[in-house]
Specification:
Strand order of the largest sheet: 1-2-3-6-9-10-11
Order of helices and strands: HEEEHEHEHEEEEEEH
Shape: globular
Number of helices: 5
Helix content: 10-25%
Distance between the termini: 26 Å
Strand content: 25-35%
Structural class: alpha+beta
Number of strands: 11
Amino acid sequence: MKRILIGMLLLLGTAHAQDTVSIHHTRFTTTFDKNLHYPVLVHWIVTSNDVCKPHTPRRVERSDSYFRSDPLLADYTRLRNIYENNAGGYQRGHNMDAADNSCNLQQMKECHYFSNITPQTLELNEHTWGDLEDHTRHMVELYGTVEVWCGSFGHKDTMGPVAVPDSCWKIIRYNHTIEAYMFPNTHDVDHNHYDFYQARVSDIRTATHLKLNGI
């Protein structure tokens, strides 16, 4: 069943003329597609020093920041009204998640740039994707460091200039272990645990046409 699903996700990755730009922020690098208006690749490293648990002195809350355009790509990331008023009810899905920046206010603000945001269904953003984020931070607790690559591909819907991707993917590496996942951006994605969507790095390379060097 998993292989059938992965095959479907690969077929959904329709070709388009890419026009991407890579932007380096304090803790993450985003490769943003200026035609699709979402990031196709975001990369960062999270360590135990980057995650502050609730009620600890260095803790920074998401409420201390807000979604905003990226000052390094302002013309393509003035998207706040688009997300707030979209008819499909798609949420602002972080690629580099906010909790990975819970010790530093500037880093928290940067991860709320729309160059780090993808339209996701509620079921993906708040459940399956969120559960994988929790798993990633648990690996940080166990091993101290996790390297993360993630992004999206395809075009299943439109929010003004913003394309809604068919699928979202993530790769994590820790303690000589690599885990890779591809998720359909659907309302029923949370019917399965995130483990159900495990894939191979080669599957993601094929679907995204990204080299993913260093993995």
